[in-house]
Amino acid sequence: MSRFNLIYRNSQKRGERVDLPLTASTSEGFTIGRSRSTDLLLPTPDVSRRHCRLIQSGQQVLIIDLGSRAGTHVNRQRISTEKPTSLSHRDKLQIGKWKFRLLDSQQESTQQETTRPKAQPKQAKATDSLDQMLSELDGLASELDDGDFASMTTLSIESIESQRKQSESESLRESESNQAINRQPIEKQKSDKDKAVLEVDAYKRESESTDTAPETTQKNDPKERFQKLPDHVRSKGPADSTTAADEALKRIFGG
């Protein structure tokens, strides 16, 4: 395995390692671009055919932009064209939309030796675990760089706002429901009271009508008033007309 490596920080290849077969005696270096003739093919329109080149100078790696349209970025800074820029261990490199991290295996080993606990000198190296952790961290950093964090924040704010509006709507409906429940006894009392008043008024009208009925009949129907004489006024005589006629004939003819 080469001393220097590039680790993908985004895309479906995130976490994959690219060996850089660089030596101090190699002048051509390692070319990256969209052309099939390059050492590392990145087939997207934002990458130039021959985008940049990596070379080793002494104990460090240099990167040269070959006049690309989108430029080459190191640690989020665009580097100058045709001017070598030195790269350090764990520096971030961006070519178009592709993001990488440079790893120096020698410095990586040195860091592991210095951070390894003295009580466990025979503990195996956790290179794979470390690479996995670095890949996950790079993926998170890549998402933040791409603006996904802003999108996540916007979604979170929208979700909180939606929950707040939903809570307010539920509180309003609950308040209206409670007010309706509280109004029901009052409306029922009013209805019962109005009903009682109507019943009393109807009873009064009925009573007044009953009291005034005989008097009205007496005034409007005089025949009914004088239809029958009292017994002490009525003259005494035959009970029927036939008897009365017989008695009249007897008085006339003397019989």
TrEMBL record:
Composition-biased stretches, type Low complexity, lie in: 105-114
| Occurrences of domain FHA (ranges) | 30-79
UniProt cross-references to Pfam families, sorted A to Z: FHA
Ranges of biased composition (kind: Basic and acidic residues):
161-176, 185-208, 218-234
Q: Which CDD domains match?
A: FHA
Region Disordered: start and end of each range?
105-129, 160-246
Q: Which Gene3D superfamilies match?
A: 2.60.200.20
What name does this protein carry? Glycogen accumulation regulator GarA
Q: Which organism is it from?
A: Rubripirellula obstinata
Gene assigned in the entry: garA_1
